[in-house]
Design a protein that fits this description.
Elements lengths: L5 H14 L2 H20 L5 H25 L4 H20 L1 H10 L1 H18 L7 H19 L3 H40 L1
Helix pairs in contact: 1-8, 2-8, 3-4, 3-5, 4-5, 5-8, 6-7
Length: 195
């Protein structure tokens, strides 16, 4: 492919356009970090607050999935599907925080299993473009194991586990956003230097 190829020029421009916003992922990471730390400070009496925070976390995660779908070519349908599911779940949690937190606690094992499956799929989909894909794979496998373990617990234990793992999930999401931010920044610099 030659340097004057219009498709290559358009692809470079698109990558450069997206890469200049790498710092938004750092901002996202900071927000996830704050949310994770707030959740980890609450006790079981803060059910409504947890319902709201988890609802907003799900909505934000859904929006991120739509952004990823817009920036990728392969498996776009999967990003959109997960985005829709996250946003719908988040909106329901925000409008019904106590019921949502109770439902979330009772179905926590299944939710962790679904998140684990999503992370495993994401790891393999991004394997060629992401040298740290294995971190996502390991996180997904750990989340699968946690999902099966949590599924065997009682409702009170699930509620406490919900608090703990919602906070840990937010912290893991923050770490992932930092990694993606610097990968996007690096990609932008590579495109700029090749131009």
């Amino acid at each position: 492919m030659s340097m004057s190829d219009p498709n290559e020029t358009a692809a470079r421009a698109a990558i450069a356009g997206v890469a200049k916003w790498w710092w938004l992922l750092l901002l996202s990471a900071a927000l996830w970090l704050v949310i994770g730390l707030i959740i980890l400070q609450f006790d079981t009496q803060s059910v409504a607050t947890i319902g709201y925070l988890v609802g907003f976390m799900l909505i934000f995660t859904g929006i991120e999935q739509f952004m990823i779908a817009g920036a990728t070519e392969g498996y776009r349908w999967a990003w959109i599907l997960f985005g829709i599911l996250f946003v719908l779940g988040g909106v329901w949690m925000v409008f019904n925080p106590i019921g949502g937190a109770a439902a979330l606690a009772s179905s926590l094992g299944l939710i962790f299993i679904l998140i684990g499956i999503f992370w495993v799929i994401e790891a393999f989909v991004t394997k060629n473009a992401n040298p740290l894909w294995w971190l996502t794979l390991v996180s997904g496998l750990i989340m699968l194991g946690i999902g099966f373990w949590v599924g065997s617990q009682g409702l009170l234990e699930k509620g406490i586990t919900l608090l703990l793992f919602a906070g840990i999930w937010a912290l893991m999401h923050a770490i992932g956003d930092v990694i993606r931010a610097f990968q996007l920044r690096k990609l932008g610099r590579l495109v700029d230097s090749a131009a």
